[in-house]
Amino acid sequence: MIPASIRSKRIEYAIRDVVVPAKELEKKGIEVLKLNIGDPIKYDFKTPEHIRKAAAEAVMNSRSEYSPSEGLLELREAIVDKEKGYGVDITTDDIVVTTGVTEALMLIFAAALDPGQEILVPGPTYPPYITYPTFYDGIPKTYRTVEEDGWHPDPDDIRKKISRKTKAIAVINPNNPTGAYYDERIIREIADIAAENDIFMISDEIYDKMLYDNEFVSPAKIAKDVPMIILNGISKVYLAPGWRIGYLAIRDVDGKLEDIRDGIMRQARARLCANTPLQLGYLAALKGPQDHIKKTMDKLRERRDYVAKRVAEIDGLSVVPPKGAFYMFIKVDGCRDDKKFVLELLREKHVLTVHGSGFCPIYGKGHFRIVNLPPVEYLEEAFNRIEEFMKERKNI
Ligand SMILES: Cc1ncc(COP(=O)(O)O)c(C=O)c1O
């Protein structure tokens, strides 16, 4: 056997550990109820028609050229306008259109981290915030977010974990997997820590318009004094995760991000560009009607409220109702092994969820994550089974 690189072997994707046994059950003809996938299209949501049409037209008009590495100018102009709407001042030169936020994370971590350098990420977190810093020989450190405080970050823990090797603090707001929303006060506190330590912030805003009650306030507006890289894309708000289009926007202060910008741009050129016709789809999404968002949120609200009610009725489970996104991070009282819990729930009741420790072994353990994306009837059947499982629960 010709060995793969050590670096590639460091990549772990905990979520896969539960998908493989689910597929085995399906191979045997067993229907598995899936509450694990953060993809609205897998349930009863559709990419809005005008966005699909724009992408189809771009393909039919043979917009098959390579775009500039940083993305089509007209799309970057639309992104500048979008960010202006949040009070964020950037230019088209500050933007790189990427193959989703996930590629943007790869570009940023590869540009920012030398071996042994650190990045602070929320605990629990979206797994690539752990995977990619590690892949690039850096060290991701999770800072505590506090369940009893609506899963808000603990600034004292952030302060404790900053070292001379720390390059950046990431915030994911609204958050995956907890659905927390950080208000202006918390963002300001984190920004103060970044400013005191002369490091930059990464602001993942992929769920920005998916708030149930609040109006999104951009961290870049709150913290004008802190260099920041903003991330967003088409996947969630515009219901097109498989299109793989997103962006990073460098909101610099006093040229502090110049070198990292150069590191990002070099990589962006080396990988040519993001998908051209689907950039035009994203342009239509940003410029066109936005009314699907309210409809999406109305459905998600009903589903969130249903799950919150069911969880409250089940002995041994509790959940902080999310303020945004479409995840619910459910606590299992006295759970000693959340992965085993999730695997048993799958084996015995054929309901697929994701173990909390897959999002952070320290701050995620004892929990499981579900999506409140499926219709209520689907959730009802899933929670009937979860309720039975909890009644019969063994010592897990
Ligand atoms: C916080 C967060 N950022 C980014 C992504 C993925 O974004 P993209 O599809 O643009 O790569 C996800 C997907 O679940 C996410 O939860």
Automatic annotation (TrEMBL):
It comes from uncultured euryarchaeote Alv-FOS4. Its EC number is 2.6.1.-. Keywords: Aminotransferase, Pyridoxal phosphate, Transferase. PANTHER family: GLUTAMATE-PYRUVATE AMINOTRANSFERASE ALAA. GO terms for molecular function: pyridoxal phosphate binding; transaminase activity. Belongs to the class-I pyridoxal-phosphate-dependent aminotransferase family. Transmembrane segments: none annotated. Its cofactor is pyridoxal 5'-phosphate. This is Aminotransferase. Residues 31-386 form the Aminotransferase class I/classII large domain.
